[in-house]
Design brief:
By secondary structure, this protein is an alpha+beta fold. It has two domains: 2-222, 3-Layer(bab) Sandwich (Hsp33 domain), CATH 3.55.30.10; 228-277, CBS domain Like (Alpha-Beta Complex). It is 33% helix and 31% strand. The chain is built from nine helices and 13 strands. The chain has helices spanning 19-29, 33-53, 127-137, 172-182, 189-192, 199-206, 228-235, 240-247, 268-277; strands at 2-6, 11-17, 58-64, 70-76, 81-88, 102-108, 114-120, 143-152, 155-166, 212-217, 221-222, 253-256, 263-266. The strands form three sheets. Strands 7-6-3-4-5-11 form a six-stranded mixed β-sheet, covered by helices on one side. The longest helix is centred in the N-terminal third of the chain and has 21 residues, at 33-53. The termini are far apart.
């Protein structure tokens, strides 16, 4: 992930290569076909949004398909770790967007509260258009965003994207130049499949001939942050009767993480310990 700004203060540009991140999340969720590509695009978009708008906060992006087809979740942590979730509707094999689909963005604030907004996905629009609509409507920030996930034979071969934000200092001249240039980057499928594709290379393509300054570069990757302590913390919120019900069979409780599918085995003795503290 590379963050830059043009020397005239007109544009902030964030570029990202997310191939391994997207690949890991898609494998963990066993996503296929159009769902996998949309899921990958959402993961990249959530990372770009967090790095741009809330780099120190956890950001979750949720795409809810219309007519109960399901939803996709991207969960981006300030550490750079990212994970995701595919939730198919009953009897559905794909999560599609279409008319009535919405994008929801949630930020976990330091005080524990959640800042969130919901925007309809533009008709016939994809993930890039969904994020641009959200930025314009919910954040009141004019941005150009493009994300791409390329998949061949069920395997992610490349993924990435960019976000260009207009800053208050932008003048009419630079704005016209950038607007015309970005017409060539409304889709970046061609760019992400280039052998030289990288955040630095993409910035050079976007800002060709425009002086800019590198602000910082950070690493992102696929990783789930579940652990047994979090599982036990969640179980501790159950009431007395629910815990006793889990103990009624006196068997090891098996719980799987929805994000990474890691299994946790909680023996009865540990559950009984929760009764004394609940």
């Amino acid at each position: 992930m590379l963050r830059t700004i043009t020397d005239d203060g007109a544009f902030r540009v964030i570029t990202a290569r997310t191939t391994e991140t997207v690949r890991g999340a898609i494998r963990a969720q066993s996503a296929r076909g159009l769902t996998a590509r949309t899921f990958g695009d959402l993961l990249t978009g959530a990372i770009l949004f967090r790095e741009t708008m809330a780099p120190e906060l956890r950001v979750q992006g949720v795409l809810r398909g219309a007519h109960g087809v399901g939803s996709l979740v991207a969960d981006s942590h300030p550490s750079g770790k990212t994970r995701g979730l595919v939730q198919l509707g009953k009897g559905e094999s794909e999560v599609t967007l279409g008319e009535g689909a919405v994008i929801q963005i949630m930020r976990s604030l330091p005080n524990g509260r959640i800042n969130q907004g919901v925007v309809e996905v533009p008709e016939d629009g994809g993930v890039s258009q969904a994020f641009m609509a959200y930025m314009q409507t919910s954040e009141q920030v004019v941005s150009m965003i493009a994300v791409s996930t390329l998949i061949e034979d069920g395997e992610v071969i490349s993924a990435g994207g960019y976000m260009v934000q207009l800053l208050p200092e932008v003048g009419r001249g630079p704005l016209m130049v950038m607007t015309e240039r970005l017409r060539e980057f409304e889709s970046i499928d061609g760019q992400v499949q280039e052998a030289q594709f990288s955040p630095q290379w993409l910035v050079e393509q976007l800002l060709y001939g425009m002086p800019y300054t590198r602000l910082d570069e950070t690493r992102v990757g696929y990783e789930c942050w579940c652990d047994e302590l979090r599982v036990m913390s969640a179980l501790s919120t159950l009431n007395h009767a629910d815990i006793e019900h889990l103990l009624s069979t006196d068997e090891v409780l098996e719980i799987s993480c929805e994000y990474c599918k890691r299994e946790y085995r909680i023996p009865p003795v540990r559950l009984r310990g929760l009764l004394t503290s609940s």
